[in-house]
Amino acid sequence: MEQWLRGVISIGVLSMGIISLGVLSLGVLALGTLVAGLIAAGAIALGGISLGAIALGYLAIGGVAIGVYSIGGLAIAHNIALGGYASGHVAIGDRATGYYAWSNMSELTSVEREQIRETIFREFPNTWRWILNLFTG
Fold first, then answer.
1. Distance separating alpha carbons of residues 52 and 8, to the nearest angstrom
2. Other CB atoms within 10 Å distance of the CB of residue 101
3. Sheet harboring 100-102: ordered strands across?
4. Measuring CA to CA, how many Å separate 123 from each of 5, 100, 114?
5. Under 8 Å CB-to-CB from 101, ≥6 apart: which residues?
6. DSSP string covering 4-69
7. What's the Rg (C-alpha) of the chain?
8. In this structure, what are the phi and psi dihedrals at residue 104, rounded to the nearest 5 degrees?
């Protein structure tokens, strides 16, 4: 059976390290096919900030994104979702479902963007400013 490659920088089929690159990677920064880390980018990514075809994380960005904050073709979020199909407490998308929902993303006016910003701030006052800007910019 293949052994895990370990190190500060780890590159291999099974890799584990601060910076990890491989088919199956675990690390602070993990890149590859199936990855998990503080920052994870890969086909299937699990992490604090995850980017991938399928992304699961605190902030998930991808084709299918599931997290506290999600952006993607299919975005499912606990707090804020943005995407083609968005579902979350606050949802912004071409098709949006949520307690607060805005549809037809491409046609949002500046007034509606400001309403979204105010709603996010009211519902989630501790949201980091850069996340707020990411969803309302």
1. 23
2. 17
3. 5-11, 14-87, 90-97, 100-102
4. 44, 10, 14
5. 86, 90, 91, 92
6. PEEEEEEESSEEEEEEEEEEEEEEEEEEEEEEEEEEEEEEEEEEEEEEEEEEEEEEEEEEEEEEEE
7. 17
8. 55, 60
Tell me which amino acid residue 58 is: Y
**126 DSSP assignment:** T
* Residue with token string 């963007």: 113
Which amino acid makes up residue 131? I
Whole-number pLDDT of residue 2: 59
Residue 79 tokens, joined: 């707090």
d(CA 46, CA 55): 6
Tell me, what's the pLDDT at 1?
44
Residues 54-113 pLDDT 10s: 999 999 999 999 999 999 999 999 999 999 999 999 999 999 999 999 998 778 888 888
Scan for tokens 């949006």, then name that residue: 96
